[in-house]
Specification:
323 residues, mainly alpha, globular
Length: 323
């Protein structure tokens, strides 16, 4: 197992290098110039001398291969640079926005698990019943509903409910406060986005849980054991649930990794100053340094989560062995 973990960590190096090369090229294919945006803000005239000085300061006048090698070396030495737009450290820009995105991702994952696994399991056990059809409709609706529409409708629903209840429309505050400082204010800010995102991600997990449960329960040894009596059926159902949850664990891990960088739409709708919104601002401002750091953060989280999921697979199912 330890050899496998070390091998996977070593394989992460070319994965991260390939992702770095891809994001480096893509960011420079976007038309625009961060110096023009910075110096010409508000439609002001851009002086050629100032533009040249800005490009020299940011290293944009160097050959692309030199810029890329600097980029790789800086990341290899954990030097993530300075934002081209704000002039602040990239680590500082990410650190002040990461808590809100991380909290929403964790809460959304917990909500998705709490919804998907029980409903998916019940749907499989009650196959082709009215309850099964209802769960499948809920899952399909979650998959088909766009994120922005679901977020907007949830805000409208809060406005309508609070207006009917008190005669005055209310919306959650937009200023993020850590949970340990003011739990009620914190939950008022992040609970609705977490529920919105959690429901959408639970839809996929719900369908996978149902499919995995049905596949396991249709095995011949499961049918034989269930025919022996109620006690054996209960034991077999537990065994089937454990085996069915193995692919679900992988999906949950992948969903969490995507949630870290996939909150762009949700944070825009709810006006949250998190990682997703920061990425949009970085691309709009042609801030290559910050945008590259954010994408690489998501890639690193994805690689790490996949490693953790593989290790959990071996722990949940002793038949799995890695070498």
């Amino acid at each position: 197992m330890y050899r496998y973990i070390v091998t996977r960590l070593l394989l992460a190096v070319p994965t991260l290098a390939g992702a770095a090369a891809l994001v480096f090229v893509l960011m420079r294919l976007i038309p625009g110039d961060v110096c023009v945006i910075r110096l010409g803000s508000g439609g002001a005239h851009v002086d050629p001398a100032s533009l040249a000085a800005c490009r020299a300061e940011l290293g944009l006048n160097e050959p692309l291969i030199v810029q890329f090698l600097h980029f790789l070396w800086d990341y290899a030495t954990f030097d993530f640079g300075v934002s081209m737009w704000s002039g602040n450290s990239v680590v500082h820009e990410i650190a002040i926005r990461l808590p809100v995105s991380l909290q929403i991702a964790v809460m959304a994952t917990v909500i998705a698990i709490a919804i998907a696994i029980p409903l998916g399991t019940i749907s499989a056990l009650k196959e082709n019943s009215g309850l099964d059809h209802f769960v499948r409709v809920v899952a399909i609706a979650g998959i088909a509903t766009p994120s922005f529409w679901l977020g907007i409708m949830s805000l409208v629903l809060v406005l309508d409910i609070t207006y009917l209840a008190s005669g005055r429309a209310w919306l959650p505050p937009i200023t993020y406060v850590p949970f340990w400082e003011d739990p009620l204010h914190n939950l008022a800010v992040v609970l609705l986005p977490a529920i919105t995102v959690g429901y959408r991600y639970s839809a996929v997990t719900m369908r996978l849980t149902r499919s995995a449960m049905l596949e396991v329960m249709r095995e011949d040894y499961i049918r034989t054991a269930r025919a022996k009596g109620l006690l054996e059926q209960i034991i077999v159902n537990r065994h089937a649930l454990k085996n069915a949850l193995l692919p679900v664990v992988t999906l949950i891990g992948i969903e969490f990794a995507f949630l870290i960088g996939g909150l762009v739409v949700t944070e825009q709708v709810f006006n949250l100053n998190g990682i997703g919104r920061l990425l949009v601002q970085a691309v709009q401002n042609q801030d290559n340094v910050l945008a590259q750091a954010l994408v690489m953060l998501v890639v690193a989280v994805f690689v790490f989560v996949n490693l953790v999921v593989d290790v959990l697979y071996a722990w949940l199912d002793p038949r799995i062995r890695y070498s």
